[in-house]
Amino acid sequence: MKNNRVCEILDIKYPIIQGGMAWVADSSLAAAVSEGGGLGVIAGANAPIDYIREEIRKTKTLTDKPFGVNIMLLSPNAEELSKLVCEEGVKVVTTGAGNPGKYMDMWKKHNIKVIPVVASVALALRMERSGADAIVVEGCEAGGHIGELTTMTLVPQVKDAVKIPVIAAGGIGDGRGVVAALSLGAEGVQVGTRFLVAEECNIHKNYKEKVLKAKDIDTIVTGRSTGHPVRALKNKLARQFQKLEKEGASLEEIESLGRGALPKAVRDGDVDYGSVMAGQIAGLIKKEQPAKDIIEEMFNEAFQVINVLKDRI
User: Does 83 score more than 70 pLDDT?
Assistant: First the structure.
């Protein structure tokens, strides 16, 4: 795309990053997104280092395009993973749950582009000062762990505060969302939920079906009482969470309920008692497609929307 700093920095065709979804974003999905013109991302999460190394190397056999690794900085493997991306020549790192400052010099020496995910203006400014190349600004419409502000309100405030490129995330799943994000000042988008139904996404078919059947009101946020709110699709587990929170259950009891719930849904297909993380955009998603088709459809629609808007203003 013309004059787009996200495309220039990442050497990609379309300004779209795939979310680093824990237990979901593996070599298959990351490579497919990169081959489709975006930036695929492997989720580091709490996975063993040898597993992530293998996923990085698998991705290199599937694509010669740039891809990234997501590092959750509060994870016990963060230190090792921060070194691994240097050893394996990864081009891009996205980060969450912490400040990547102590790793920045090492990553810069290895020419790694660093893109933290933030949920506030203050954190965006801190990441810019630490040397981030761009930032993902995520609104609470997103699936998984979320902040308080919406994409609509947060993106323009961050854009006004920083000079580095802003990438919008949360509630973006089609071309209309892309145009909305760009109009708010973003120069790219991060998409997670729509890629859950990419053909190359290896989550259990039950998980995909639940996303495809979701309606507009089918997501719920649990964990607000613990300070770690999570958005997922409504199911029996979510109702148990709600019950415990209303009863004033202890933090230990609530967190115990959620332990291992995400892989239970992703790998085992338990969509009743597993955590089916998805964003509010799930209600828009109606079909499974190759990742390349998802990307091209989104941006073709975005160009059509822009042409329509020219006649309305």
Answer: yes
